[in-house]
Each structure stands twice: as structure tokens, then as C-alpha cells.
Amino acid sequence: MDNSCGLFYASTMFVSVILDPSSMDSAKALASVLIHFRFKKVQRACWEHSSISKEMLVLLKKEIDRVTDYYDVVRMYQYPVQECMCLTELSKKKWKRCLLKASSLK
Predict the structure, then answer these.
(1) DSSP count for the chain of H helices, then E strands
(2) What whole-number distance in Å separates Cα of residue 92 and Cα of residue 34?
């Protein structure tokens, strides 16, 4: 089996979502989406879910994309993604992803 960080996801993963909304309307819409997906608010702009499936994560990203505008920024920390930490960011209506291996953290 290939040990590189690919598109393989564990059946469930921990996901933390950090919000930087551009307006109160965006903040309310994003909070509503996260509540719907059963995320728990742990700090002012930080929400967490300890066991979300990859299918639900895909739906979550679609909903976040639907309720955000060009000026909103959403950052997601996902673990594990094939034994890697995955950082995904929505900025200027574009998703970007970065996979971090344990060896790259040393």
C-alpha cells in the first residue's frame, strides 16, 4: 500500500473549522450550516466535530461554498487524511488544500 498522502480519507475524521466572515449575515449563515452538521462551537470563531465522514465533509464544503461570498475566509483542519493533517481553505471563493506529513512537521 502506498504511504503517500493521497485522496484517501479515514472513514471518520476530526474536523476543526475556523471562520473569518466578512459580515454578520455571513457569520450567521456559516454558524447555521455548522450547527446543522452538528459541529460544536469551542471558541468565538472555532467549531469542531470529532467524527465526521468524508461524505458529510463533501456536503459541508458545498454548503459552506453556497452561503459564503468572495470576502469570507473559512479554514478547515482535518485529521486523519491518510495519516496526514489536511488544511483546507476557502478564500476568494476558491478552495485550496495542503497535506502535512509528520516528517514535514519536524
Answers:
(1) 2, 6
(2) 20
